Amino acid sequence: MSTRREHDLLGTREVPGNAYYGIHTLRAAENFPVSRERVHPELIKALATVKEAAARANQDLGYLPADKGQAIITACQEIARGELADQFFLDAYQGGAGTSTNMNVNEVIANRALEILGRPKGEYTTVHPNDHVNLHQSTNDVYPTAMRVAAIRLLLPLADGLAKLQAALQEREVALAGVVKVGRTELQDAVPVTLGQEFGAYAQAIARDRWRLYKVEERLRQVNLGGTATGTGLNAPLKYIYLVNDYLRRLTGLGLARAENMIDATQNMDVFVEVSGLVKAAAVNLHKIAGDLRLLTSGPRGGLGEINLPARQAGSSIMPGKVNPVVPEMVSQVAMQVMANDALVAMAASQGQLELNPFAPLIAHALLTSLEMLAAAARIFQTECIQGITANPERCQELLARSPALATALLPYIGYERASEVVREAEVSGQSIKDVVLEKRYLTADELESVLTPAAMTRPGTVKLAKRGPA
């Protein structure tokens, strides 16, 4: 295989002749072989778009010749479409606040631009990764800007996925509205609810998540592009700073704006903590819903068995006929990973020093991974689980009829002490609540029939007592 020689501050190295990456990428690959996880592809695409905005601004202002500028722009557009993806193989966990990834992108753009111009790769006197592709930029302004662009691009599909999940839960709310069942608090019998009410509560929780994530996107729109190394804008002409942000806004279609204080936007990453926290909140709700569904479908004979989940795959290599709640289990695992990632984001953001946070790569990887994973989990939850849920009304009725929680409706008529006595006696004797009340003559059969109506107990107010007939 042919090679080419490239040099940097530390010396000279052989680089594969057909590679679009260069010596900086090669050194980073050697320095950080710590995991099988790669820099998130959406971050690479966002960086390419930032580079295109810079090239267009520099070209317009006369800092880049038209031919070089257009070649760089074309290369950026190709990478932003996902092309040359095999050239971006650096480990997600890397030192340098993202410099390795920035240089990886610079080198691939430069060598692809050289190829477009008909020049050999590595001929950096024609198109240089730093002097031309990285002109008027620093890792410290393009990398955080790309983080914001990538986060917004992944946040919007998550919000949309949650909206569809909310709609699916609302459909179940309507479909299961007539199924009355035992409510449970602390996993113990409580007053009746309907399955529809349970699913309506789930839908409301997801509605909050959807709205919070939709609104928090605004917090990511303030970028420090043009701030260069520390946010002061050193070596970036003022006209360029305004123009590059205008181009980035047009290229992305996002409502991006230059941060009022670019030093703040360069050194502080609390906005990512805020976003990650709301993503975690959505994960918490998904985890809770998934856990509830596993309980409600448990059994089917030895558990609650109040609902049926769609069967998606055989559940055991040894037990015939077993089907597990695999989709809710997957959702819970994704949710737990998102919660863990949120802790990483908070920890990394708190460890910035003075004018820069060197742990930006960890923040980027954790947040972007969470956004992508949770969006996929929400979509699968909706299509492969929620939409196909059905009820077991007979089982719901069976458990409800045996539940001592029905005695709660008696409180306005026989008081707490007598109601407690009824419950205790029913549990000891095995009789129903109704039989014990009749035996003690606390209420008549007609009165009991009206009071112990489960459907009426799922609505606000006191269950009305039937009028006593003539003695």
Please provide a brief summary of the model.
This protein is mainly alpha-helical.
Treating each run of at least 4 consecutive H or I residues as one helix, how many helices? 16
User: Which strand-content bin applies to the residues?
Assistant: 5-15%
Distance between the termini: 106 Å
Quaternary structure type: single chain
Keywords:
single chain; 471 residues; mainly alpha; Fumarase C, Chain B, domain 1; Fumarase C, Chain A, domain 2; Ribonucleotide Reductase Protein R1, domain 1; 3 domains; two-stranded antiparallel ribbon; 8 strands; 7% strand; elongated
Task: Please describe the topology of this protein.
Elements: E1 3-8, E2 11-16, H1 23-31, H2 41-60, H3 66-80, H4 99-116, H5 129-133, H6 139-175, E3 180-185, E4 188-194, H7 195-216, E5 222-223, H8 238-252, E6 257-258, H9 262-267, H10 270-296, E7 307-308, H11 326-350, H12 360-384, E8 390-391, H13 393-402, H14 411-429, H15 433-440, H16 445-451
Parallel strand pairs: 5-6
Antiparallel strand pairs: 1-2, 3-4, 7-8
Helix pairs in contact: 2-3, 2-4, 2-6, 2-8, 3-4, 6-7, 6-12, 7-10, 10-11, 10-12, 11-12, 14-15
Account of the protein in words:
There is one protein chain. The protein has 471 residues and is mostly helical. It folds into three domains: 3-135, Orthogonal Bundle (Fumarase C, Chain B, domain 1); 141-393, Fumarase/aspartase (Central domain) (Fumarase C, Chain A, domain 2); 403-458, Orthogonal Bundle (Ribonucleotide Reductase Protein R1, domain 1), CATH 1.10.40. Helices cover 57% and strands 7% of the residues. The protein contains 16 helices and eight strands. α2 (41-60) crosses α4 (99-116) and α10 runs antiparallel to α11. The longest helix is centred in the middle third of the chain and has 37 residues, at 139-175. The chain is elongated, with a radius of gyration of 31 Å.
